[in-house]
Specification:
By secondary structure, this protein is an alpha/beta fold. It has 6 helices and 12 strands. Strands 8-9-7-10-11-12 form a 6-stranded mixed sheet, with helices on both faces. The longest helix has 21 residues. It starts with 24 loop residues before the first strand and ends in a 48-residue tail after the last helix.
Length: 388
């Protein structure tokens, strides 16, 4: 509330400005953000408040919205009632999780012909306050599963630019890691390294139970089996234990398409394990070595073929295929090789592309456009007398 007080201006009247609007908190899914670790140690986020109005009809500045970046695949859950508010699947999806309050009105707003000196003003609205749970279900085309220390992180670091922690002890991976595997300019997929599972993971044993949700959206599972586990367990029994945990967690996950791979092919006994797994399951089993690189190219080729087939089936069924990265061949105009070609700059097309230190514009013929053809009369660059 303010009144104009100026010399030689009697009854200046009200001049209180309005207050600014409060900022909002916005959640946005962004490529390159792979985890919710940034939210682990901070529980309260407060957006900027609007500035108060002042005299001389000066309005307060609006608060700047605060954007909190989360990985694609983050589900926003209301902590009080437990329902899903928003599922941020596609990079670029935004959601206003808490809206800022409207700014108040100064007394200049209440001026009328009969109320020339109003003393009313309104306070700003209370902003929204909400307690939410952020749950990440990683959006990946392929998920790596297996016992602890089966070589999942090593394989991810070999085929992508991801750099997960790698060590010779179990449970080295504490959180899922994502990597983009690029076979060439037009073929790529997203690979997720899930922390090692053990028997009883679906019931809360070990670390893997917290991350089983991350492979719910993976269309293909790559099951790595180690030929010589450090704890001395039987590799065939380990394979069956992981299969049982997947089925107990979700029937759909237990029936998910799977590639069986024996890792650490440089170790003695790896080939015998591959044959035993193939005989037991009746399926093709691949043998790879992340150390030497043997079998990796063939494995990536088969994975890419299956990923492309699944993408095509989802598109044919009318499902929305999530765009995981710019240039993805699914639902993208960039998949067309004609659209992938960069436009040639104008100075490199047409006649100007022939210009050089020895070939100048004056050397070009007016009729043929050939700099070597000088049969036509050259252009007049001198000061010839103008014809009348």
């Amino acid at each position: 509330m303010s009144f104009r007080r100026e010399k030689f201006v009697p009854r200046g009247g009200p001049d209180g400005g309005d207050g600014g609007n409060g900022a909002s908190l916005i959640l946005e899914a962004k490529l390159g953000v792979n985890s919710l670790a940034a939210f682990a140690n901070r529980r309260l986020y407060r957006a900027e408040k609007g500035q108060p109005g002042q005299g001389s009809m000066r309005h307060g500045r609006n608060g700047r919205d605060e954007i909190l970046y989360v990985p694609p695949g983050t589900t926003v859950i209301d902590a009080q009632h437990g329902f899903v508010i928003k599922d941020l699947k596609v990079p670029g999806d935004k959601f206003v999780v808490a809206r800022g309050g409207k700014g108040g009105h100064g007394n200049a707003r209440f001026k009328t012909s009969t109320n020339r000196a109003p003393r009313e003003r309104t306070l700003g609205e209370e902003p929204e306050s909400r307690m939410v749970i952020l749950e990440l279900k990683s959006i990946a085309d392929v998920g790596l599963v297996g016992m602890p220390n089966a070589g999942k992180s090593t394989l991810l670091s070999r085929v992508s630019s991801a750099r997960p922690e790698i060590a010779d002890y179990p449970f080295t991976t504490k959180h899922p890691n994502l990597g983009i595997v690029e076979l060439d300019a037009e073929r790529s997929f997203v690979l997720a390294d899930i922390p090692g599972l053990i028997e009883g993971a679906s019931e809360g044993v070990g670390l893997g139970h917290e991350f089983l949700k991350h492979i719910e959206r993976a269309g293909l599972l790559v099951h790595l089996v180690e030929p010589a586990p450090a704890d001395g367990t039987d590799p065939l029994a380990n394979h069956q234990a992981i299969r049982d945990e997947l089925s107990e967690y979700s029937d759909a996950l237990g029936q998910r398409e799977e590639l069986l791979v024996v890792s650490k092919g440089e170790i003695e006994g790896a080939e015998e394990l591959r044959r035993a797994l193939a005989m037991k399951t009746g399926r093709d089993v691949r043998l790879i070595s992340a150390l030497t690189g043997d079998g990796i190219d063939d494995l990536l080729g088969e994975i890419m073929d299956r990923v492309r087939r699944r993408r095509g089936e989802r598109i044919a069924a009318g499902e929305d295929v999530v765009m995981l990265r710019p240039g993805d061949e699914v639902n993208s105009k960039k998949s067309d090789p004609q659209n992938n070609r960069r436009r040639t700059p104008p100075h490199l097309t047409g006649a100007t592309s022939q210009l050089s230190d020895t070939v100048q514009a004056k050397d070009f013929s007016d009729t043929t456009g050939d700099p070597t053809d000088r049969s036509s009369k050259p252009a007049n660059h001198g000061g010839d007398e103008a014809t009348k």
